[in-house]
Amino acid sequence: MEKIFRLKNVVEVTGLSRSTIYRLFNAGKFPRPIKLSERAIGWHESVIQHWIDEQAGLIKNGKI
């Protein structure tokens, strides 16, 4: 079973603030979370790692 990252984990792994993650998510530039319960969301670890890899590729290619 794949690990689920809660927001705190995503903040640590990406280096982004909570507000930046929500801003990017609302702009369609960050992966959608999955609903874990009525008041909890999370992201599959692989989805976050893929997003990080994409961002690194954009920087490397001079697109950011």
UniProtKB/TrEMBL annotation:
InterPro entries: AlpA, Prophage_regulatory_activator. Signal peptide: none annotated. This is AlpA family transcriptional regulator. It comes from marine metagenome. The lineage of its organism: unclassified sequences, metagenomes, ecological metagenomes.
